């Protein structure tokens, strides 16, 4: 029978056997999957695991600093890399979702490769790929159904020549969380909602600019903090704000405004393959909407997404 403890035990033993004294590099994303994969590998090979945490400029507000701190606390051998400008440069002028994903994937690999080259004699790339990532990236291969290319699946460009080790690729999200608990990983990391690799770039519809990122980070932080203080965060599978490329008329005091719309999304799901929109309380939605409109310059309207997956997807891009 599968239990988190037996999984941890057999996986660590198998990793020791497989990796021996080899060195592994792993990109941490701040999410549950890469964090759990890192801790498993750390248990198996200790300092031979070299973690790299890249700031792509597309994370939530203050996320990079606070998560890097947590990783260090957990004893991981981790290096934080500020690559914000490289990502913004690569995204400049792009508005097609798949082009944005590809650009982000490409820059991530470049940055990661630069860092990996600094680790002498590295043999392996560790990844936090989970089972649904594997299925979705297989199922989108058909020409009629290019849904989304998940950039963190499918391994490597040839030039990296590393073997791939993916200790979680048979698990669903809830199982990954249970394994993380068995490994005593902090709740602040384990309880975190899933967050896409391309980050806020696919929650800003159209072209990305650092200014739009800053606006969305503020709105998103108000949203998420309110979900937390209302005790709702843990009941929601995934939530986030989306910056819409739509301007609408509003009034602020005596002034007419013409500003952008932010959409709030919150879903219930088991594994992200299907999802229902959450029936958040109206008074909570009202409070969040007021706070965003009153505090985030550039936003004068907030809407709530009431679409389920399928036929909608969780992300808007
Ligand atoms: P969708 O939008 O396809 O999302 O219903 C399902 C789950 O996958 C996440 N997602 C991504 N994760 N790279 C990722 O690492 C991506 O390009 C990507 N696109 C979607 C999404 O946040 C949700 O949890």
UniProtKB/TrEMBL annotation:
Molecular function GO terms recorded: GMP synthase (glutamine-hydrolyzing) activity
Annotated pathway: Purine metabolism; GMP biosynthesis; GMP from XMP (L-Gln route): step 1/1
Membrane-spanning ranges: none
Enzyme Commission number(s) of this protein: 6.3.5.2
Superkingdom assignment: Bacteria
Binding residues for ATP: 29-35
Residues annotated as domain GMPS ATP-PPase: 2-192
Reactions listed under catalytic activity: XMP + L-glutamine + ATP + H2O = GMP + L-glutamate + AMP + diphosphate + 2 H(+)
Keywords of this entry: ATP-binding, Glutamine amidotransferase, GMP biosynthesis, Ligase, Nucleotide-binding, Purine biosynthesis
Entry function: Catalyzes the synthesis of GMP from XMP.
Assembly, per entry: Homodimer.
Protein name: GMP synthase [glutamine-hydrolyzing]
Lineage of the species this protein comes from: Bacteria, Pseudomonadati, Bacteroidota, Sphingobacteriia, Sphingobacteriales
